[in-house]
């Protein structure tokens, strides 16, 4: 199974929420994914790296993660996702679960 790596940056919006420690949530299993959040000095941006076996959905990944960033105000972070055919709804859920693991 050939994997595709998608990398992009998103400008943070809304009330900023910074990642203060590293978080890992989820597992790479069929229809699922793992999310790794870590702090990064990106001047208000999010750096995103997605490794997925599914090709041709770069714009969908960008839209799902941009929507998550806009809703949560997450900034100055590195988001790494290791995907195994998760649906956009599962991606959004795992991102929110990872964010919930951050200390308040």
Automatic annotation (TrEMBL):
Q: Where in the cell is it found?
A: Cytoplasm
* Key words, A-Z: Cytoplasm, Phosphoprotein
Superkingdom, according to UniProt?
Bacteria
What GO cellular-component annotations does this UniProt entry give? cytoplasm
Provide a Gene Ontology MF annotation, just one. Answer: acyl carrier activity
Q: How is it modified after translation?
A: Covalently binds the prosthetic group of malonate decarboxylase.
O-(phosphoribosyl dephospho-coenzyme A)serine found at: 30
Family indicated by similarity: Belongs to the MdcC family.
Q: What does this protein do?
A: Subunit of malonate decarboxylase, it is an acyl carrier protein to which acetyl and malonyl thioester residues are bound via a 2'-(5''-phosphoribosyl)-3'-dephospho-CoA prosthetic group and turn over during the catalytic mechanism.
Official protein name in the record: Malonate decarboxylase acyl carrier protein
Species of origin: Rhodopseudomonas palustris
């Amino acid at each position: 199974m050939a994997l595709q790596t998608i990398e992009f940056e998103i400008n943070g919006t809304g009330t900023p929420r910074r990642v203060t420690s590293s978080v890992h949530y989820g597992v790479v299993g069929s229809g699922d994914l793992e999310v790794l959040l870590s702090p990064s000095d990106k001047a208000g941006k999010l750096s995103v790296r997605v490794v997925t076996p599914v090709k041709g959905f770069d714009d969908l990944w960008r839209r799902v993660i941009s929507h998550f960033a806009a809703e949560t105000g997450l900034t100055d972070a590195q988001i790494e996702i290791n995907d195994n055919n998760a649906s956009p709804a599962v991606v959004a859920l795992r991102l929110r679960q990872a964010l919930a693991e951050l200390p308040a």
